């Protein structure tokens, strides 16, 4: 029982420490942290060096927290759009020629179209089984609540499949 209490004390202390650091963004430890194990094997973390204690590596930086600059004000370009101007890629950035990129886009479009066809077939099968909200009752559904639960899960699955189809169609239209 002694180790359990020590574990909870450690957990509580760690939670308080994490919460304190979250509240004080940039807070830093000023002293060392020691892990102490007593004769009964209980573990304690403290800032005081005592018998049976070992200093832990500091997991807090002693360097000052970086100063955050305010966000730049977006520039208005000649086209009337706001936001940062597009930047040029570094010279070492790998380039892909347009033919290779077109081939990659075609492969991606083909994969997405295959997924779209599979989802559309799945949706057609689900709607057929759903039968306009009144699917056939199964033998193990003598309890009406069980039947209603299956109908609700079918309705949810149809909704998810419809959303998948919409997402795939958006992806396909976004390909160059």
Automatic annotation (TrEMBL):
Keyword annotations for this protein? Coiled coil, Signal
Residue ranges of every copy of the DUF4124 domain listed in the record: 27-74
Per the database entry, which stretches of residues form a coiled coil? 109-171
Task: Tell me the leader sequence span.
Answer: 1-29
Q: Does the keyword Signal apply?
A: yes
Ranges for the region named Disordered are 75-109
Know the name of this protein? DUF4124 domain-containing protein
């Amino acid at each position: 029982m002694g180790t359990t209490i020590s574990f909870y004390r450690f957990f509580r202390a760690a939670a308080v420490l994490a919460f304190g650091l979250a509240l004080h963004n940039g807070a830093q430890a000023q002293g060392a942290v020691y892990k102490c194990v007593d004769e009964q094997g209980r573990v304690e973390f403290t800032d005081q060096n005592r018998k049976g204690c070992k200093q832990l590596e500091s997991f807090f930086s002693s360097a000052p927290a970086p100063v955050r600059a305010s966000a730049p004000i977006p520039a208005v370009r000649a086209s009337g759009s706001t936001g940062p101007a597009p930047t040029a890629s570094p010279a070492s950035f790998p380039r892909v020629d347009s033919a290779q990129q077109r081939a990659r886009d075609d492969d991606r479009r083909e994969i997405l179209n295959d997924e779209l066809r599979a989802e559309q077939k799945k949706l057609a099968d689900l709607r057929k089984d759903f039968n306009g909200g009144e699917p056939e009752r199964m033998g193990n559904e003598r309890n009406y609540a069980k039947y209603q639960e299956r109908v609700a899960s079918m309705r949810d699955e149809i909704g998810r499949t419809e959303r998948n189809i919409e997402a795939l169609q958006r992806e396909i239209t976004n390909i160059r």
